[in-house]
Each structure stands twice: as C-alpha cells, then as structure tokens.
C-alpha cells in the first residue's frame, strides 16, 4: 500500500490513515489511487467489521492538493475529472458497504475533505476543529460526494449556506447542524473514534452494518420498496446464529 495512505487491520478493525501531513492530507494523484485501493480492500475483507478513518498531522483532510493541481502535471479539466473518479470509487466502496465507518476528524476539514468526512456513518471532531467547503475560493465546485451528501446531512438551506460562503463551521456549529455526532477534547478525537468502532465490534456488528446499509441505500428505493427491503433484511438477520443467541439471552433475562 502507498505511504500516502496507510491501511491496517487489527481484531476486526480496519484503520485507514490519510498520511500526507505536510499537505494537510490533501489528495494528489498518488493518494487518490491509494485511497481507492485501501477502501475497496477494507470492505472486501471478511475479517473487517468496522472501519476507522483518520489523518496524520495537524488536520484531517484539506480536500484536493491545490499545489499539485498547479504543478504536478494536472493540466486539464479532464485530468481533474479522472482524479475525482478514482477517489469516488473509494467513496462508493465505503458508503455502499455494510461495514459501519467512524471518522476521527481532528483539526480542519475542508473542500473534498468534507466529502471524506461524510463517508463516515459516525463522525468525531475536536473542540478546536473547523469544517467547511471553500471550493469557490479557488474557482471550483463541490466534488467527492459533497453535493450528493451535504444536503442530506444538514438540509438544503444549510448546505447552500456552507457552499455559497467563505465559512468554516466551528465544532459546536458542526454538531448543532448534525454534520458530526460528537465533539470531544482535541487530544481525545482518535481514541473516542476507536471506542465507537470497538463498541460496534463487541456487539452485533453484522446487524449494525445492515442497519447502516438500509439507511444509506434508502434513496434508491420507493417507500414500499424500502419497507420490503426492511422486512427482507430483518428476516435474514433473524436466521443468523448471532441474532438467535442474542434473542434467546434477552428472553432469558426478561423471564427472571
């Protein structure tokens, strides 16, 4: 795996670490390929029950590497489109999987990094964190799922406020808007994210994963189709040994 992005698996937890700290973990072509490869590898592994996204250095992710856009041979819109397509493969792998994802988004998250943040199903940020769009500052438009996911997360009006202003949300604003799940002390972000991942792994992680899939995939279906998919999913879950054991244990406790 490329040094620009690290993948490790420990006792069911896959850790994807953005590793370009001197560039605030901004995406260049090398990191884009590494992201796609790591994300698809993580969701394809049978021994992975939870995924943790994190970044090394002072920030979670600053989006695309603007310096690389200007100096690294990215000379056309077609090249940018191809690069975004590579990153999008990793985004789709994570969001469409049945593996729950937690993000430890310390420091600043901006531009395409906002899309990477929203890949997670549960996001932890620090009290000093800032989150924003900032695409228009360099004459570009949202990518990496920002336009697809931001309005779903915070509502259309707030999404427009964020993408049409030169604004970084404070940690409290990001929490109030529903963009993140928890705000913790800056030095606790990664530890708290791992606690969430371990909580999933210690419980019925298969059921958590299917619940994630149901919610994430709902826009693809009509209301009637979603009800049918819920019924199919809970029936499949009921037949698993894990669910049968948990149901039996719950019934035994209730009978005391």
TrEMBL record:
<protein>
    <submittedName>
        <fullName>Enoyl-CoA hydratase/isomerase family protein</fullName>
    </submittedName>
</protein>
<comment type="similarity">
    <text>Belongs to the enoyl-CoA hydratase/isomerase family.</text>
</comment>
<dbReference type="InterPro" id="IPR051683">
    <property type="entry name" value="Enoyl-CoA_Hydratase/Isomerase"/>
</dbReference>
<dbReference type="InterPro" id="IPR029045">
    <property type="entry name" value="ClpP/crotonase-like_dom_sf"/>
</dbReference>
<dbReference type="InterPro" id="IPR001753">
    <property type="entry name" value="Enoyl-CoA_hydra/iso"/>
</dbReference>
<dbReference type="Pfam" id="PF00378">
    <property type="entry name" value="ECH_1"/>
</dbReference>
């Amino acid at each position: 795996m490329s040094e620009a992005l690290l993948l490790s698996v420990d006792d069911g937890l896959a850790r994807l670490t953005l590793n370009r700290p001197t560039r605030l973990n901004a995406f260049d072509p090398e990191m884009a390929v590494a992201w796609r490869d790591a994300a698809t590898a993580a969701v394809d592994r049978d021994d992975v029950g939870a995924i943790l996204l994190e970044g090394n250095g002072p920030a979670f992710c600053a989006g695309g590497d603007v310096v690389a856009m200007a100096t690294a041979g990215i000379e056309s819109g077609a090249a940018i489109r191809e690069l975004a397509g590579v990153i999008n493969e990793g985004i789709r792998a994570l969001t469409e999987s049945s593996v729950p994802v937690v993000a430890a988004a310390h420091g600043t998250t901006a531009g395409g990094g906002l899309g990477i943040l929203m890949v997670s199903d549960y996001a932890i940020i620090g009290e000093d964190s800032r989150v924003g769009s900032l695409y228009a500052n360099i004459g570009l438009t949202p990518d990496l799922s920002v336009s697809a996911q931001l309005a779903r997360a915070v509502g259309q009006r707030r999404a427009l406020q964020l993408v049409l202003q030169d604004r970084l949300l404070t940690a409290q604003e990001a929490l109030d808007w529903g963009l993140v799940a928890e705000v913790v002390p800056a030095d606790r972000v990664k530890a708290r994210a791992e606690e969430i991942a371990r909580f999933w792994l210690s419980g019925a992680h298969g059921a958590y994963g299917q619940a994630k899939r149901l919610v994430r995939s709902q826009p693809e279906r009509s209301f009637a189709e979603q009800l049918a998919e819920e019924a199919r999913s809970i029936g499949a879950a009921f037949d698993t040994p894990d669910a049968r054991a948990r149901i039996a244990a719950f019934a035994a406790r209730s009978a005391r």
